[in-house]
Amino acid sequence: MSALIEARDLTKKYGAHVALDRANFSVEAGRIVGLIGPNGAGKTTALRAILGLTAYEGQLNVLGHEPFRGRTALMHDACFIADVAVLPAWLRVDHAIDFVAGVHPRFRRDRALGLLAKAGITGERRMRELSKGMKTQVHLALTMAIDAKLLVLDEPTLGLDILARRAFYDALVNDYMDETRTILITTHQVEEVENLLTDVLFIDKGRIVLDSSLDDIATRYAAVAVAADNLDAARAEKPFHERSMLGKVVLYYEHPNLDRLAALGEVHALSVADLFVAKLSGGAE
Amino acid sequence: MNVPIWLVRREFWENRAIWMIPAVIGGFMVLIALFGRVDLMSIPSQVPIQAVGGGFLLAVGATFFAVMSIYSTWYLLDCLYADRKDRSVLFWKSMPISDTTTVLSKLATALILIPAVYFAAADLTTLIMAFIVSVRSSSSVDGALWHADLWLQLQALWLYMIATTALWYLPIAAYLLVVSAWAKRAVMLWSLLPPLTLVLAERWFLDSHVVASAIGERLMGYPAQAFRYDPGCCGWVTTIVDNDTITTPTSIWGFFNVGGFISSTETWIGVAVGAALVVCAIQLRTRRTEI
User: What gap in Å lies between CA B239 and CA B274, rounded to an integer?
Assistant: First the structure.
């Protein structure tokens, strides 16, 4: 399978500040990839570069296009929500649908209308009359009605309540996602997307610190909770992170020897959120 | 796929003032015609009837034209800036529409579509006003206002002005687009600052005023380029009223200086500068996404 997105030494500087520092990553077709990092790590800059919204150094290929020069062509096959609530206040819902139907060859009006009907949003209302959550849903309906190969979402559920968030992710996985599509998503709510991602990219200080599929994470990492008397033995197994919890110490391992660890305490798999915190807060003390 | 048409429709959705302002002006003028004093009889009867009607039509047209100039300036300064300010640029850029098409659609809206809307509004207003005035006053006025040739001339004048002002003011319009694509705030202030700085710097350091006169010529020089004032020519009538000699045109055809405008170096220097600034605005639109 060929890579849909291929970045080599992707670099972006804002004056003295380096937002992306020779980042290397690729995204394969048919995956749901989470781009995860703390604030200011370079997530948004990476997405902007992928979408052709900013110039950059290094090599970047998205769907066969050089995004900055070829944004117009790229947008036939890719769509994005780069930020929530960016539909202008004066825009009417029906006009928004007419406009996208008029300019985008891959837009399916019936699909957009169906999604809006589900959300209970109708016709002639202007964006300024809608709540932030409803505005987000209009934008999502417009975007999800486009038959794109690549969908990029930057914090797509910000401002939505828990019901709307759950409904959105269900729709994304059940109605939208199929083998012809690829989704790249950033979010602060790691726990929320953990179950739908197939791959994760951890980004920190402009560099990719982890590029892995979730299957790999499950086999490659493990954690063990040990009591104080087993701590020295557990530390000898070279954990890369540890934290204290309820009188026990939880130690994280890469390529663990599960048999030996099982003798020391309770072994469990690492969640993406656990791994994220461990990777980004440094090694074992 | 008619992307430019959708982009223009979008401009009309966003800027409802494009048609609301001329509608209000037109409505106001119709009110004046309905309730104001109609006193065409005080004009000396020696003055040719076409000149009376023409003067009336031109006065209405000039009012629309003046308001349009102010509105278009504001529109050009706002159009690329507003998208960045409310971040909706991120939505527009998610569509398969090039920045070139976007910028050109705004330019075309300002230089062709807005003038066309004002043209239509002025025409409609003058028609309604002429009808009201005719009904309210004596039939002798009819000859002044209901003159087929006069109306034809007015249409020609409007079309000629839309075409020539679009070319003449292209550098100004393109400059405003550059500011709109570039400024982070206070577009109005930023649009004035560079020319003012240049003018003052030149005056201070070089004690000359090349920039000032170039700007002045561009802003004020349009009538001199596009029209000729030649009372000796065709269509002029001289009348003597109370020992005063009044020379009035009865036709505007003689005023059009088509050949002079087209062959003027100044016209094409302006077009060249304007084109360069449009390219600049497109580049800024591509690179400057947010504020």
Answer: 45
